[in-house]
Design brief:
The complex is a heterodimer of chains A (325) and B (728). Chain A is mostly helical and 325 residues long. Chain A has two domains: 2-90, no CATH class; 106-318, MetI-like fold, CATH 1.10.3720.10. Chain A is built from 15 helices and no strands. The relative contact order of chain A is 0.13. Chain B is of the alpha+beta class and 728 residues long. Helices cover 32% and strands 17% of the residues of chain B. Chain B has 22 helices and 26 strands. In chain B, strands 13, 16, 17, 18, 21, 22, 23 and 24 form an eight-stranded mixed β-sheet that branches. In chain B, helix 4 crosses helix 6 (211-225) and helix 19 runs antiparallel to helix 20. Classes of the chains: A mainly alpha (325), B alpha+beta (728). Chains A and B meet through helix 2, helix 3, helix 6 and helix 8 of A and helix 5, helix 9 and helix 22 of B. Chain B: Residues 178-597 form the Solute-binding protein family domain. Chain B: InterPro entries: SBP_5 (IPR039424), SBP_5_dom (IPR000914). Chain B: Keywords: Membrane, Signal, Transmembrane, Transmembrane helix, Transport. Chain B: The chain crosses the membrane at residues 697-719.
């Protein structure tokens, strides 16, 4: 397994370089270094001299990918791409174009994102699987039909509606929880209740339908019939046998998103004023802060690859027949 | 009697628990607390102002900062030599850290002071002399902390030593010292430092004697040996401290607007210790820099800097005794604005700025009493404002019942539709192009725009100068006679028929170019996006259709838009200007030839260049407000109205709401002056209102839970039934 993991990590290197180059090209296609400088210096009374000075101080006065005027290895080395990428490979993201240390900001902002994402995932998973198993139990009946219809209905509602509706009902009308905000430590709990509830409810439609499909596939298999023939209770059949055997696709969906959880949710964080990482990338794009954008894209790519590797590993744990070679 | 099954017993227990829980909650002391309070503590004693911010500050170094988002903090922390009087209108400068207003001396070429009567042509330099108040202290700060031997605690830390300090709170020692004239001199030198990217470096180099030379020296030294932090060994010829409390600034020529700059954070004092302290190794890794941790002498100091969540200002314990103003404009006394006259300020102990990006939660928190003031977004406009039969603006009954107050003020800003004066069709001094621009000025009905898109929050522009600025004229004398006529005591836009006549005179009868026999099409550069943007563009297209001109919208992003303005590729565009200071020069320079965008990368986006106008501008800019200045301004405005390089759009009006417990509120648009120190909170009233408005309502949640149980019970019964039938 170790050789497989090493091989996957080695495969990841060209992918990450490719993602990095693509980010550079796309970003600089839309924004020139002059645009970045103007975004940082403000709109009023900005002289070309000030723009040049800013570019020089931030290293944006060099060619982007290829320095035709340099010699030898410097053709590649004396470029914005090389300057900005080499430290990033080792997760030293440096400072943003506005001057804040990116590593510091990430370390501060990841916790609020995780504080919402982990409980939402765990509670959501439990609720969705339980409901899906119950629906499967009533498969072919009116309960099954109406449950699926209801799931489609929930699925069709925009997540923005859940957020605004939740804020309106629980916070504005009933005054039960704060509408928005965040705090550290135990004080954060009252701010997390509503986003988590909304996150769970908002995920029921899609989640339940997906798990129902997985369980329906399993329920007609021989081992289920055998379990029933042994006289096991239906609840035992559902939760012990069917659930265990449907774990591989569930894991595929869940493990791959685990590392990405800390990247946060843009909408949720924005509407609840939660200072997580979800809005960090968008803020960076809006402010044309290239340092933030490339760092977050790189981090997202790394985490996605980690997620895929973890998924592969988890297969071997759930299904002993799977071997990583 | 049938015995209950286990499941039924559990369900019954569950229902009983929910009901008893409801009774407990609704009758317990918990009910009297506000569950939805987003703040940690809410004792009656909290003398805290709660406000929101929607955009995080980028830089809090006063030499760099140039935006309202940042001035709302900097204005409270830093003290430039001058400030605006809180109550007087028009806005009047007054000393802030000075004993009196600066003494102004005019000098000839040899540096000899000129005596009255002064011939303005002889003025080669202007010298401003400042005298500081004694005993002004900086806020407690580790940069100023000294040990018993008088050595600074934290001025020579190594990278390892600086590691444990994650924020300023982690420094066990703080210190203070008196504000000195050298601190102002230091800040002026900082303007020239290329590493600090001050936006006014270019402008001030033209005026402050010796600043250009210092900038060149610092540029060279920075290139050769890296960033320079300590500027004590560098000199600016025209800026001198002549003692601990006196300093002077010498300017090239005469520049009366310089006084306004002296009220902006660019000229706030920075002690050299701050530069040395913040530029130590390792601090940047924890964002410990002057960008994030200011050091000022103002009424407040920043004690929590988390731009992703909240910014907290607390009363500066070293702040000197300062009094609430005892004079204002007529009517202030009746409004209760002089009730606190001569009382010691600041009144508020702490200010909590909370990040609130979305308008809906922001508005709801304001209504719940968790923000003390709020703007009015278009989403909530109808909830807050109603219009009377004569079009007068009122608060809705809901707002009135909450005791909310409305304040409106026309801002020192303007929005306009600009013509590129270098364009072959629409630009230039020809009569044909001028008449075309005049016709468009009549057709584009900004009164309608204000009504549709800004909920009436604005007044249509009769020229570039907004109300409240010297040079603005009200009533019939102030209308643009090329676009409006005075009718029944009101300005009435000229008819479309008249606009079409102008168009015909220009050679575009029925929108057909008589030179090419082709329909006239104009190109508009748009950066408007989203559904609102689409509506605005459709409206604009229709305005041009009224005079048979086809408007072609070219959507672009902001970067390309700016590039098009710089290269002259834009034909028609919308733009705005927010004044730095309340002087007509700050609006009229937007048409000054040497400010042209294409040639000089200046702020004259229309690239208007009229020698007569330029000459008048040169005269006007160095004059003090007087009838003679007004006369020149009138001439300049007349030239602009005649030539029409802009369609004078509108001056936006700001509506703001405050709760009844928030006192001493007077609309104040010069954001660079800190005004929180004058404001007061009636904390008892706020506490009571919050309690009244935020009683938790639990029964709907109980009802929902009971409904869920009601759904689950039949499911369980069905499950058991199925299980039983399967066994049979």
């Amino acid at each position: 397994m170790m050789s497989y993991i090493i091989r996957r990590i080695l495969y990841a290197i060209p992918i990450l370089i490719g993602v990095n180059i693509l980010t550079f090209l796309l970003f600089f296609y839309v924004n020139t270094p002059d645009d970045i400088a103007k975004a940082q210096l403000g709109e009023k009374r900005v002289s070309q001299e000030a723009i040049e000075q800013w570019k020089q101080s931030k290293g944006y006065d060099k060619p982007i990918l290829w320095n035709a005027e340099a010699t030898g290895i410097q053709k590649l080395g004396d470029t914005i791409f090389f300057d900005k990428s080499i430290r990033m490979i080792f997760f030293d993201f440096g400072s943003s174009d506005s001057g804040r240390d990116i590593n510091y900001d990430i370390s501060q902002r990841m916790w609020p994102s995780l504080a919402i994402a982990i409980p939402t995932l765990l509670i959501g998973l439990t609720v969705n699987i339980t409901i899906a198993l119950m629906i499967v139990f009533f498969r072919g009946t009116a309960i099954d039909t109406w449950a699926v219809v209801f799931c489609v209905f929930l699925l069709s509602i925009s997540s923005l509606f859940y957020i605004i509706g939740g804020q309106f009902f629980f916070s504005k009308m009933l005054h039960l929880v704060p509408i928005s905000g965040y705090d550290t430590g135990a004080s954060a709990i009252k701010f997390l209740i509503l986003p988590i509830i909304i996150g769970v409810i908002g995920g029921i439609g899609g989640g339940v339908r997906w798990y129902r499909t997985l369980f329906i596939e399993e329920i007609e298999k021989d081992y289920v019939r055998t379990a029933r023939a042994k006289g096991l209770k239906e609840i035992t059949v559902l939760f012990r046998h069917i659930l265990n055997n449907a774990m591989i696709p569930i894991l595929t969906g869940v493990v791959v998103i685990l590392p990405l959880l800390f990247m946060g949710s843009l909408l949720m964080e924005s509407f609840f004023s939660i200072p997580g990482l979800g809005s960090y990338t968008i803020d960076g794009i809006q402010r044309q802060d290239f340092a933030i954008v490339r760092s977050m894209v790189y981090l997202g790519s790394v985490l996605y690859i980690i997620g895929l590797i973890l998924t592969d590993i988890s297969y071997t744990i759930v299904d002993p027949r799977v071997r990583l070679n | 009697m049938e015995v209950l099954t286990t499941v039924q017993k559990i369900m019954l227990l569950f229902v009983v628990l929910i009901l008893s829980g409801t009774i407990f909650i609704t009758h317990s002391p918990l009910t009297y607390a506000s569950w939805n309070n987003p703040y940690n503590a809410e004792p009656e004693e909290d003398n805290i102002l709660y406000v929101a911010f929607s955009s995080r500050p980028k830089h809090l170094d006063p030499v760099r900062s140039y935006s309202e988002d940042e001035y709302q903090y900097l204005g409270q922390i830093y003290e430039p030599p001058l400030q605006y009087h809180y109550l007087q209108r028009p806005y009047t400068l007054e000393p802030q850290t000075l004993t009196k207003m600066p003494e102004i001396v005019y000098l000839d070429k040899s540096g000899t002071p000129l005596v009255e009567p002064i011939n303005h042509d002889q003025i080669a330099y202007t010298e401003y002399h400042f005298e500081l108040q004694k005993g002004i202290l900086y806020q407690p700060h580790p940069a100023l902390a000294k040990d018993q031997q008088g050595n600074y605690y934290y001025h020579s830390l190594t990278k390892d030593e600086s590691k444990p300090f994650k924020s300023l709170e982690h420094f066990p020692h703080t210190g203070t010292r008196e504000l000195l004239a050298q601190d102002y001199v230091n800040q002026i030198k900082r303007i020239a430092n290329p590493a600090l990217h001050s936006p006014i470096r270019g402008l001030m180099q033209e005026y402050i004697v010796g600043l250009k030379e210092l900038a060149q020296t610092l540029d060279e030294r920075t290139k050769s040996s890296g960033k320079i932090n300590d500027l004590r060994n560098f000199l600016v010829e025209g800026v001198k401290s002549t003692g601990d409390y006196q300093f002077s600034i010498r300017l090239n020529g005469k520049y009366p607007q310089f006084l306004y700059w002296l009220a902006m954070p660019f000229f706030a004092p920075i002690p050299w210790e701050a530069d040395v302290f913040y530029n130590q190794p390792g601090f940047d890794k924890n964002n410990i820099s002057l960008h994030w941790y200011p050091i000022g002498t103002g009424a407040y100091m920043l004690t929590e800097n988390n731009p992703n969540l909240r910014m907290v200002l607390e009363k500066n314990p070293n702040f000197r005794t300062q009094r609430y103003p005892s004079t204002g404009e007529p009517g202030d006394k009746e409004k209760g604005l002089l009730r606190d006259a001569e009382k010691t300020i600041p009144f508020i102990d702490k200010v909590v700025f909370t990040l609130e990006k979305e308008s809906i939660p922001y508005w709801n928190k304001f209504l719940q009493g968790y923000f003390d003031s709020s703007g009015i977004s278009s989403d909530s406009f109808d909830n807050a404002i109603s219009f009377g039969s004569a079009g007068e603006i009122n608060l809705t009954n809901d707002m009135k019942s909450r005791g909310i107050q409305l304040n409106t003020v026309v801002g020192t800003s303007t929005f306009y539709l600009g013509f590129n004066m270098h364009d072959a069709t629409i630009g230039g001094p020809s009569e044909r192009a001028r008449l075309l621009r005049q016709a468009i000025s009549i057709a584009v009905d900004y009164d309608e725009y204000i009504s549709i898109f800004t909920n009436g929050r604005g007044i249509s522009g009769q020229g570039p100068i907004p109300p409240g600025i010297f040079g603005y004229k009200n009533g019939e004398a102030g209308i643009n006679p090329y676009v409006y006529e005075w009718d029944n005591g009101k300005a009435k836009r000229k008819s479309i028929k008249y606009a079409k006549q102008l168009l015909e005179q220009a050679g575009y009868k029925n929108g057909i170019d008589n030179q090419t026999s082709k329909p006239l099409s104009l190109f508009y550069e748009s950066i408007d996006i989203g559904p609102d943007g689409k509506a605005r563009l459709n409206w604009l297209r229709k305005q041009f259709e009224k005079i048979d001109i086809q408007l072609i919208i070219r959507s672009t992003d902001y970067n390309r838009f700016q590039e098009k303005l710089l290269t002259g590729a834009a034909q028609l565009f919308n733009f705005g200007w927010n004044a730095d200071y309340p002087d007509p020069e700050n609006f009229l320079f937007l048409f000054y030839g040497p400010q042209g965008k294409i040639k000089y990368s200046g702020e004259n986006a229309a690239n208007y260049d009229n020698p007569e106008y330029n000459h008048l501008f040169d005269q006007m800019k160095s004059m003090s407000n007087s009838p003679a200045r007004q006369k020149i301004i009138d001439q300049m405005v007349e030239i602009l109205r005649h030539d029409a390089p802009w369609v004078f759009g509108f001056h936006p009006k700001t509506f703001s709401l405050q709760h009844s417990w928030y006192k001493n509120i007077k609309p104040f648009i010069m954001t660079n002056t800190g005004t929180i120190k004058y404001k007061r909170i009636d904390k008892k009233q706020r506490y009571e209102k919050r309690q009244q408005w935020n009683q938790p309502i639990v029964w709907p949640v109980v009802l929902i839970l009971l409904c869920i149980i009601a759904l689950v019970i039949p499911a369980i019964i069905a499950y058991r039934h199925r299980e039983r039938s399967r066994l049979l």
